[in-house]
């Protein structure tokens, strides 16, 4: 559009100037065409493009009015030169990345567009990362773009102190997402402050046998209130357990060989304790089953028996309250796995039955309720072709391929990372990956937006209720917002795992009913925020329903928009807590079997604790009985987890 | 001018430094000795000495009759480890030729033996053998066994669980180096040693064996030797299309690169291999077409936006292949398995080759 405007306006002036060589002497630019003889000035201390340039040429731009600016090094009739351009705000001593481009002009030339505020000076740098050869560029102006509405606009910013971060997740329970960068003997955490800055702290750890080179996931494994880390490496798994205030970590490494890909934390057997899971590239998938006391037990088998496992995601695909497993596969056995979880954590592959065991050479998949009809749909993105698959959950155990009818085939890119979030807070989940973002139109179709960044850790870096994306280097893409309302929900489990991972959260507004399943580990590599994020459109209040992994359901009404809502399991403030139904047991004392009776107690999770509070048994109530034959004689506490809450009763074992 | 001199000098050093490995594992041929007899149905045996492949102190790796040493023309870089290789076959069976670039068709009961070691290992400046890997063929299928050597270097015990051996040594140039040497688990073995998910050897192809070897009794072409030993049918073409030694500076950069990726990369980047869903095809007979080398081919997964091509003519910085070769990050590096260090000599070759390519990719 603006190109035509320029051609018609005839404003192009041509001038040959001596480009200046330092930031302080940057040459002010006006609209026009400029020639650079060669790049030989002082290099820039801030590189927004992750290269290794030595030298640079410096310019500046200031406008008396708001304007759009375009700079390109692709000029008709002139040779294409492999340039890079970076635009900064700030001062020469404290440059902030504002916009940048390497190859956007085509043929390795550069093209950058940015919005310039009136009377703000922008520093413009060309560097010699690729070549110091001279070139020409044109700066042109166009009317400032209108503020975005239901589009997704990100700005790249530098975060001082940020290095490569694998995670963006609250590590100190202040409901602000923190930056997490683990390395062999250190965890660097950037704690988000209320003022939007980050306080970086290096926490030394024992040397990890295995680092988070392939993936990272986070959750409170030992229920001590602080998040632990799981590192997925090429040859095995290490866990880093946090102390109670998250200021120190102890290491637990496993010697078993695992070529880790995606790692997750999830309560596989619904015993109230998070387990670890890792995709295995070259063998059967593995789990680390939490014994609920002090360790995780390595298990291989039962979660996909062949190689080629790249992207695991746990979500409830059949609305039975249990976390099911989907594995995006690639390479040696590329047929994806779809494994519903049945009682007790048994996973069975039904992909062949559904005709889903086809090969997309996929490294990850994105699962969410794209059509807000109350069940999880799946997007399986390819890593090596532009053929992706969008499957609508029909709610009856079947799925329909709607890739083309929904316009998802407009994503003509490929990537190893695919995730879904509501980036514009309009109440409809968008899909990020490949060539950009499939923005959900809310009418069953998607519109492709290629202006967005690629995947990284996703969370809220500035506590504005809009999801941001951490870049792989020292910067981040800040979501500029849309004016829509939002709600972020942090479940805090008691009977359920601490993070509420696996909780199904439903948010109901005037026009929409949306669901999220709380996850640790989506996409391929990164760890994104554990808070459930909902866009509310223009709604100002919502009803929030939490379906806890324990079976407890809590409902909060008239929840105000635009807040982070912490929901403690069983202590919902907006709810008048009903008296718990009674739990009857017999015989007393008991020898082999306890028969339980009460409201809705059969086929529910049951746990037995010793008199000192140690978990000694977990399982399910079956045929209204619980087996206790092998317990030592003594006094125990029996706990049955029902939809109405955790029912407890002590008993004596003979 | 300066660059030209460097290019000429560097490979010379490489040639000098690598001559040693080819001299290792000299065969001891003793006429009249009985041929070793083994029953493959009993494999894998618990300890390496149980096979009787070697005479005298096992650490000396002196093979008994019928255990024939060999050395492929090009070998995989594995953190600078040296290797002894031997082949053994039962009596009255032999391998047959199946194409220059195809694996020899080995008979039932064949055992391929490969011992990994370092010299000048600190603190005692001695040789340290780490592991001896076996590939043996039973019921028409290849199977793995791995024997981990004890600290005394007197015995090696079957173990396919994988592990680590931290090692520090003085290399042939007098430089101290360290690696946390990875002993592969069975699943790791298969990752590289497979075709259509079935275990296979990698190196013993006619194109990679058609070279001279210094045996105890003199220098001989390896294929001729195998035939003389009764291990290879004489029915094969006279002219074998043979890979050049990638360290041979008399060969063109392009062909050296082709030879390098053939042995370092093609086991995963060929049809029916671990990573055949990516576009590269790195086997030597496939890389006459530069597209199969990734030249001017956009990557499926550009790790950084600058990586416009797998190999960008004239631009190392834009070449994803170079970036992966130069990395030790296990989620970035290529090859994925078998190394924790950068193969600096291979990287120098790749750098010189990419810089020599013109014009820039469109």
**Main beta-sheet annotation of chain B:** 6 strands, antiparallel
* Number of E-state strands of chain B: 12
Helix content of chain A: under 10%
- In DSSP terms (H or I, runs of 4 or more residues), the helix count of chain B works out at 7
Cα separation of the termini of chain B? 28 Å
Poorly predicted runs of 5 or more residues of chain A: 1-17, 573-578
β-strand number of chain A: 53
- Amount of helix of chain B: 10-25%
Low-confidence stretches of chain B: 1-32
Query: Which structural class do you get from the secondary structure elements of chain B?
Result: alpha+beta
Would you summarize the structure shown here?
The complex is a heterodimer of chains A (654) and B (362). Chain A is mainly β. Chain B is built from seven helices and twelve strands.
What attributes does this structure have?
heterodimer, A: 654 residues, mainly beta, five-stranded mixed beta sheet, 2 helices, 53 strands, disordered N terminus, B: 362 residues, alpha+beta, two-stranded antiparallel sheet, 21% strand
Ordered list of secondary-structure elements with their pairings:
The complex is a heterodimer of chains A (654) and B (362).
Chain A: H1 2-9, E1 14-16, E2 27-28, E3 32-38, E4 56-62, E5 67-72, E6 85-91, E7 94-101, E8 111-116, E9 121-127, E10 133-142, E11 154-158, E12 167-169, E13 178-183, E14 186-192, E15 198-204, E16 215-219, E17 228-232, E18 237-242, E19 249-253, E20 260-266, E21 275-280, E22 286-290, E23 296-300, E24 309-315, E25 324-329, E26 337-339, E27 341-342, E28 346-347, H2 351-354, E29 364-368, E30 377-381, E31 389-393, E32 399-401, E33 419-421, E34 430-433, E35 436-440, E36 446-449, E37 458-459, E38 468-470, E39 475-479, E40 485-492, E41 504-508, E42 513-517, E43 532-537, E44 541-547, E45 553-560, E46 563-568, E47 583-586, E48 593-598, E49 605-610, E50 615-620, E51 625-627, E52 634-642, E53 645-653
Chain B: H1 2-18, E1 68-69, E2 82-88, E3 111-121, E4 126-138, E5 141-149, E6 156-158, E7 161-170, E8 176-185, H2 186-192, E9 194-195, E10 198-199, H3 206-209, E11 212-215, E12 218-221, H4 222-228, H5 253-264, H6 320-325, H7 344-356
Antiparallel strand pairs in B: 1-2, 2-3, 3-4, 4-5, 5-6, 7-8, 9-10, 11-12
Helix pairs in contact in B: 5-7
